[in-house]
TrEMBL record, chain A:
This is ABC transporter substrate-binding protein. One of its GO terms (biological process) is peptide transport. Its main location: periplasm. The lineage of its organism: Bacteria, Pseudomonadati, Pseudomonadota, Alphaproteobacteria, Hyphomicrobiales. Pfam families: SBP_bac_5 (PF00496). Residues 1-22 form the signal peptide. Belongs to the bacterial solute-binding protein 5 family.
From TrEMBL, chain B:
It is found in: Cell membrane. The keyword Isomerase does not apply. InterPro entries: BPD_transp_1_N, MetI-like, MetI-like_sf. One of its GO terms (cellular component) is plasma membrane. PANTHER family: DIPEPTIDE TRANSPORT SYSTEM PERMEASE PROTEIN DPPB-RELATED (PTHR43163:SF6). It comes from Phyllobacterium brassicacearum. It comes from the Bacteria. It is a multi-pass membrane protein. This is Peptide ABC transporter. Belongs to the binding-protein-dependent transport system permease family.
Amino acid sequence: MNCVTKLLSAVTVLVLASPTLAADLRIGLQDDADILDPHRARTFVGRIVFTSLCDKLFDINEKLEIQPQLAKEWSWSEDGKTLTVTLRDNGKFHDGTTIDAAAVKANLERAKSLPESLRKSEVASIDSVEVTDATTLAIHLVKPDASLLSQLADRAGMILSPRAFESADFGQNPVCSGPYKFVERIQNDRIVLEKFADYWDANNFNYDKLTFIPISDSTVRLANLRSGDLDIIERIAPSDIEAVKGDANLAFYPVTGTGYQALTFNLKKGDKDTFPIGYDKRIRQAFELSIDRNVINEVVGQGIFQPAYQPFPPTSFAYDKKFESRQRDVAKAKALLAEAGHERVKLEIAFGNNTASQQVYELIQAMSAEAGFDISLRPTEFAALQSALKEGNFEAGQSGWSGRADPDGNIHSFVSCKGNLNDAHFCSEKVDALLEEARSLTDTVKRKALYDQAEEIIQDELPIVYLYYQPWPFAARAKVKGFTAYPDGMIRLKGVSSEG
Amino acid sequence: MIEIVFRRCIVVLPTLLLVSMLVFGMQKLLPGDPILTMAGEDRDPETIAYLQEKYHLNDPIPVQYVAWLGQIVRGDLGISLRTEQPVLGLIVQKLPVTIQLAAFAMVIAFVIGVPAGIISAIRKGTATDYAINVVALSGLSIPNFWLGLMLILLVSVQWQLLPASGYTSPLEDISQNLRTMLMPAFVLGTGLAGVLMRHTRSAMLGVLRSDYVRTARAKGLNEKTVILRHALKNALVPIITLSTLLFGELLAGAVLTEQIFTIPGFGKLIVDAVFTRDYAVVQGVVLCTAVGFILMNLVADLLYIVVNPRLRDAA
């Protein structure tokens, strides 16, 4: 055997040797996470990483019900302005320090006062935090806020080590309280976590190491899963669903999310003559009657784009089936247009320039044309679309929302007169009053009645046409057992294990 | 000589200044507000105001430019708006990855392209020549993204021989590094192999017609010696020049391949930064690339002068 042959053989052996370990779990994400500081982070994929890295005061279950996590028990005062929380006494941070009431107080104050905190609006109702004893604290509110528990079941309620969070590079070296601790991050390449042996529920977490790998192309992400280089992937493309279902080595985990995809009309664009759809609700109603959400679901979504007619997902207590009665009716749409004095109406729709959105809006363009709408499509790069929506530089625009467990998070900011996300510029004092009152109550029956009333008005005015609920389709290797897809799209690894 | 160097440096300075203006200005022309991207889904007005203040985005653009330039002069490229990692650190982290990919691709291109070019030139007009030309043209015509996806589906999904994507540093695990680099380097290399083959073929054809090759044959040297020792040596000169140019292009042009195979290199860094409006990273990376090219030109100019005394007088 000559030198070249020997060298080639050595390289081949090196190349074909597979280095993977059974106790590792590799998760494919659609994007790379941003800064690894829950109080400052903004991305959806960042939340997926935090779910394993940082414990929260509360968690949710598949039905969006609040569950204990670091908080063992909690209770509301009579006036709904004080939340008393009792912490579990065996919680530890990754730096070995104990999680006590003082640490939780420091975290809530950081979320509220850190200049770069993106959680300020989520904890705005907190007035002060009082430490009663080592494991008990009283959270005093400015006014009753029923959505607070669900906020504290997300990033605002994630508890970081106070000893570490003063450090300038905390976002690169997070010290948290979850089942896995931070090891390393290479931007655009991977985030690696390893099991935290002192975690209070460590026995229920079966993997020694987690690696989160961002792969933006859904075809490549799926190819990695099929080749065995990844174990779980999120957001598989609707066009790949059949392939996943047909592969015996893979399992498909679809779930209807808490968020939605919708079309927002700019009610302050131009004037009545140049932009009638912004000023006459009958034209917006005609538009809605011209589209068939089931067609979008079947043609583009391959069955996972569950039609949405309201901002609340079916798992939410605020959801009501009565708002789903409006089906496509072209004749009625034409009649409404005629009543508004128009035969044909022009409209430009700005939307994110990806394949699924392009297909959805082309369908909408074709369906609404039959009723008298001449739609021009403006595919827009994501960051530019965000700016256009914020600055009011659009006629109708795609708006997507990842969703919140509490109904308030899916409606208040979008339709209240001063809402941060009210791109429609819709304003109704009645709706504002109903939403404020719903926010102040903890009784879900009473809250639902108020949301119903607000929805009646919104469905009549139609500043936003909801299209479908945001699905979170996961796929995993068949050997991965115990995985459950949650409506918030997070990956919870408690009880998940790999066979073989 | 010192005077010449000084004069050349004086020319370089305004070029660098112009490049920095272009880099900064072009970035500002992009639609989409980076602060909105940073402020998250909730778009809290208080946070937006704070971030605009923090990053001086309310200042007039010339003021922002001067502040950025001052920072650059101090050797600080800033931090990523997205992850707060230092931009210089990111460049130092990503550049070796792309250099390795480009080097592997060049090796593959050479191993395939040069021998194919030689054979094609020797067998000019035969079926072998036509076949090689057809394959080379195919290599040039097949888009990288298509070939990449096909290889992933065949080699990784079907045969499960190599990882579908990702990257491992050679310092960490040399075997895994080779496994992850093989397919992307092959995809990049096959495209270049076509270019190299065509240039090698035409260079060899030129050389094979020259007098000294005829003389070598007349001396009774065997054909292998004539081709490899005499003809190829001279034909390789333009090929090497072309290769250095191609290598430079590869460093900036491996974007698509890096995206498909999720190689965290220079190209992927800049593309992701543009889409997330990470101004600091885009500005830093583009400026570094431009400075690299300008400095290389300066060094080349100076080397010409060192090598050729006549140019010294002209300069």
